[in-house]
Every structure is written in structure tokens, then in C-alpha cells.
Design a protein that fits this description.
Distance between the termini: 66 Å
Radius of gyration: 25 Å
Oligomer: single chain
Strand content: 25-35%
Largest sheet: 7 strands, mixed
């Protein structure tokens, strides 16, 4: 208590910090991710397979092997450096692999060590088995002296004479910090690296210097109605395979960085704050208070003018690390053609709130939401107005994406496979999704069909989500109240990165008398409940439920 805790420059610097605690997920609008292609190979040193054969056994998946091979092409051409970081990150997608995204690779690249001569050793280091240690540190920054470290689950007590101000939490672990010895007393739960100078116990008391013990668990150790398993006899239960749910749905410090460049105009802090205010109001409801983000303002100035250089230099000057949960960069206007996101960064060229929600959705693991044109068979990428993960205004993410983020409960979804297998058809009554606000209604938000596998090579399991996005028509988009949507989504077992994409296969109104085909299912509305109310001098129909019949 009373000790002064200095912060490393560019880390958690309290210049003009405004901390805004949000409950929700961020995302943003882009006209597609920027995907700069790697430089053409040039004559130089070639990293051969023989040179790295000794470390081949440590590779655990073909996708990780592909990411490493992609990085090796940059090593071969002498471009595995900080100047090409964003390009390499987007091209090789190494952020999909914890082995490459724990900060070690970033540090080596920034230090100039990603060279042909060093690559065999660096590659072996990156894919080696690293012990995931929980570390308690003395000062409020992730580079300060380690007080105590351990990998073992269970309760651990700190020395009485030294207070902790920072905790390192590796991927796959969670930690409950306690004010009393033997894991008793006031507590706070964390699932990622946490600055205790900005963290409070449940009582509101500061955790800085006041942690006496800590309990290490896995993600599943924290009970929540949103974190559930499906028992073998629960035939209507829809399982969530997202391994990052526990990591995402915690309290995180997020830097919002305003980037300045001479001769260019960057949105003001006032307009940025307005976007964050809207974001706060939307995401607190959408996530049902699962994700908490504390925003910290930071200003940086760059001098280079190319888009990739501006993003790279801004990340360096802001002290952005691969281990950070999320950093939002607001870029000067006219530098980059569009907003984009990659790994744990969101780069915004505007302060339109839906753009924030879209791009940070990418960081959370969401891909675009598209539309299938049933007449032509073509896919309209990012054309689904029922999700923020499109190019249009929206009210929410699609139900499949909300489920992937862990923002639905077990009773919110109803799996129809058993009923269809037994009788060939079933009837389900759904309540509208709207903003995914909590509800006392016993009705589910969606009917889900797990598509049977056909045995084709490289086939991936998928699901159909049937839902009603809106209770009533509003000015956000052209979706009418009571409209039924059918989305195709991957089940995504063992998925990483921007994995949860959805495709709208069908869309029809509650009064439709026809069957509508979506893959191998036929769906038609059979009844609905609604009331008419007066809003702004107009009569508006408000739907409380829509009942659909589903058959193979």
C-alpha cells in the first residue's frame, strides 16, 4: 500500500485516460478485410525442409504447419520484419494459433531476429512445449519483477511482505484473486493478463497490493448459465464448441488509440467517444453483460504515410502487444481505403458505431454474414442485414454468432434433429431476437438443425439456425417485424480466428403460406402472435412469437 507503481511507456500510460466500463462486444464495419499479398520471392537464402526437420515433430496440426511455412516465405525473402508485420499477419493468419500469438514471435520480429540464420531455432522455440505459468508481478506492468509463478491448479498464497500489482494469465487458465489467505475473503475473477492497479474486488476495494492468495482453474471452473454442457439424454441441447468463450467473456482493458499524421485529419475524441457511447448501449444488451471492456485513451503520432506503415508504426508507438486482448486504432482519414481487423487489433477509418461493432466482432472470432441468392446460387458476401457482420446497418449479430460468443443460454436454442428423425417434421414457436436482451419468456430464440455428414472428403459439420431477428419494423434496415431467417453456420469444433461466418439461406414473413427450402429442410410459418401499438402517430405491429413447421 502506498507504493508508487510506474508504468512502462506505451503500456498502460495514464496520459489522458478515460476509463469507460462497457458490458458487451465490439465490432466494426469494413468493406472486407485488407489482405495485402506477400512480396514476391527474391533471390536469397532459402530455408530448407531439412533445416527444420528436427523440430517437425512438435507441429501438432496441418494448419499450424501451413502458418509456419507461410512465415518461412517471408524469412526467405528477408521480409520477416516489423515493416511487413501487418501484411504477414493477414497473409499467414498466425493469430489463429496460440503458439504464434503469445507475444514471443512479435518480440522476435521487432528485435530483428526473424532471419534465415535464426529461423530453425526460432521455429523450434515457437512450437515447443511452453509451460503456461501464472505469474504475480510487483508493479502495474507486464514487464515488472515476478513475485511468484506457478502452473499448478489449486490455491496459492503470496508472501505477506510483498503485494502484487499485475498478474499474467496464460491461455487456457483462469485465476480468482483473493484478499485473504488460503483463497478466502473478497475476490475477483480474471481470465487474461490483468493490471491490478485498475482492478477491484467484488466489494469495490482495490486489488492492488491487496491480493494475499490466488486460485488457478481452467475456463470451465467458473459456473454460468451461459457455460453449459449437453448431456447424452438432452436431445434438444445445442453445444457450443468455442474454446475462447471463457477468454472473451471477462473484464479487459482496451486501449483506444487516436493516430495523428501531419497533413491528415483524424476524427476528434468527441466523435470517437460518441461512437463508444452507442457501442456501450448496444453491446451491454447483446452480450447480456458477459463481456466487460474498460477503455483507455491514448494519442500517438506517426510520420510515414503508407497505410500499412501507419498501422505498424501506430501499433509500435502505442505499445501494442500480441498478448493484448484488443486495441482499437482510429486512423487518419484518407490513409487506408477501409477499416479492417486482424488478430487483436481493430483499425477504424471512421467513427460510425456499427463500424466499431463490426471490426471488433472480427477480433472476437466472427467472420462476415452473407446471403445466398437462391435463384442464381451465388453468394452475396457481407450482404446479410440481420447481422452487424455485413456491410449494412443492423440491430444485432445473427443468432448463430451470438451462440458462438457464448451469449445464449441452453434454453435459448432448441435442437430439432431428434424430432425430425422420429417423425419427419416438427413445430417450434420462437420469440424474436431483437437485441438479445434477457427475457423471462419460456420460448426459445431459435430452432437448430445439425446437418448430417455425407462422408465427402474435407466435409465440415454445419448447422441451420432458424430465428426471428426483429419484434417490430424500425428504421435500422428493411427487415420487417416477425420475419423468419434461416442461417447456415459452421459447428466450428476446434475453430480459431475469424471462424464464425453465417450465410442467410432463406427469409420470409410470418404470414407466408408457402414452404421455404433451406438446404434439406422445408420451413413455413403456421401461426403468430402480435399486437398493434401507436408509435409516433403510426400503427406498428409488434410480434411476440412466430410458430414454424419444419420438415425434411
Amino acid at each position: 500500500m502506498g507504493r508508487s507503481h510506474g508504468l512502462r511507456e506505451g503500456s498502460m500510460q495514464k496520459l489522458t485516460m478515460t476509463v469507460v466500463m462497457l458490458c458487451g462486444a465490439l465490432v466494426s464495419g469494413c468493406q472486407g478485410e485488407e489482405g495485402e499479398q506477400p512480396a514476391h520471392e527474391q533471390p536469397g537464402v532459402t530455408v530448407t525442409e531439412e533445416a527444420i526437420a528436427s523440430s517437425r515433430q512438435a507441429v501438432v496440426s496441418s494448419s499450424l504447419e501451413a502458418a509456419l511455412s507461410c512465415i518461412a516465405t517471408y524469412v526467405n525473402t528477408g521480409t520477416c520484419d516489423w515493416e511487413h508485420w501487418s501484411e504477414m499477419e493477414d497473409t499467414c493468419r498466425f493469430y489463429e494459433h496460440p503458439e504464434l500469438d503469445d507475444g514471443t514471435f512479435l518480440d522476435e520480429v521487432q528485435s530483428g531476429n526473424c532471419t534465415a540464420a535464426n529461423w530453425p531455432t526460432l521455429r523450434a522455440q515457437l512450437i515447443g512445449v511452453n509451460t503456461p505459468l501464472v505469474r504475480m508481478r510487483e508493479n502495474c506492468d507486464g514487464a515488472s519483477q515476478v513475485i511468484q509463478e506457478t502452473e499448478a491448479s489449486g490455491c496459492h498464497t503470496l508472501p505477506e511482505t510483498i503485494g502484487a500489482s499485475y498478474v499474467d494469465v496464460p491461455f487456457g487458465k483462469t485465476v480468482t484473486l483473493h484478499a485473504g489467505a488460503n483463497c478466502t475473503g473478497d475476490s475477483v475473477f480474471v481470465a487474461s493478463d490483468t493490471n491490478l492497479c485498475e482492478t477491484s474486488f467484488a466489494s469495490g476495494a482495490s486489488a492492488n497490493d491487496n491480493v494475499r492468495s490466488f486460485q488457478i482453474q481452467g475456463f470451465a471452473a467458473r459456473p454460468s448459465p451461459f457455460d453449459y454442457d449437453c448431456a447424452p439424454n438432452e436431445l434438444t441441447c445445442v453445444k457450443n464448441f468455442n474454446a475462447r468463450v471463457g477468454d472473451v467473456n471477462q473484464a479487459h482493458s482496451v486501449k483506444v488509440v487516436r493516430v495523428s499524421l501531419a497533413g491528415k485529419t483524424t476524427p476528434s475524441w468527441g466523435s470517437i467517444q460518441n461512437a463508444l457511447d452507442v457501442l456501450q448501449a448496444k453491446t451491454s444488451v447483446m452480450s447480456r453483460n458477459r463481456l466487460h471492456l474498460g477503455f483507455i485513451r491514448q494519442n500517438v503520432t506517426v510520420t510515414r504515410t503508407a497505410c500499412s506503415a501507419v498501422k505498424n508504426d501506430a501499433a509500435l508507438r502505442a505499445g501494442h502487444k500480441a498478448s493484448d486482448f484488443l486495441t482499437i486504432f482510429v486512423l487518419p482519414k484518407g490513409v487506408c481505403p477501409s477499416s479492417n481487423a486482424g488478430s487483436n487489433r481493430a483499425n477504424l477509418i471512421s467513427t460510425v458505431p456499427r463500424d466499431f461493432i463490426h471490426e471488433v466482432g472480427h477480433v472476437l472470432g466472427l467472420a462476415h454474414s452473407s446471403v445466398l441468392n437462391s435463384a442464381t446460387g451465388k453468394i452475396n458476401s457481407s450482404g446479410d442485414a440481420s447481422s452487424y457482420m455485413s456491410i449494412f446497418a443492423s440491430d444485432n449479430y445473427s443468432l448463430a454468432q451470438l451462440h458462438w460468443l457464448g451469449w445464449t443460454k441452453k434454453e435459448d436454442l432448441f435442437k430439432v434433429n431428434s424430432a425430425l428423425d422420429n417423425t419427419g417434421f416438427t413445430t417450434v414457436t420462437l420469440r424474436p431476437l431483437d437485441n438479445n436482451e434477457d427475457s423471462t419468456s419460456p420460448l426459445p430464440l431459435g430452432a437448430v438443425w445439425e446437418m448430417p455428414l455425407s462422408g465427402k472428403p474435407d466435409e465440415k459439420p454445419q448447422q441451420l439456425f432458424i430465428s426471428v431477428p426483429k419484434r417490430k419494423t424500425n428504421g435500422t434496415n428493411q427487415i420487417e417485424g416477425g420475419t423468419v431467417f434461416v442461417h447456415l453456420a459452421p459447428i466450428c469444433q476446434n475453430c480459431t480466428g475469424m471462424a464464425m461466418h453465417t450465410t442467410q439461406l432463406a427469409r420470409f414473413g410470418p404470414r407466408s403460406t408457402s414452404e421455404h427450402r433451406a438446404n434439406a429442410l422445408y420451413i413455413k410459418p403456421v401461426s403468430f402472435e402480435s399486437t398493434r401499438v401507436q408509435e409516433n402517430g403510426q400503427t406498428v405491429e409488434v410480434f411476440t412469437s412466430v410458430t414454424v413447421q419444419i420438415r425434411k
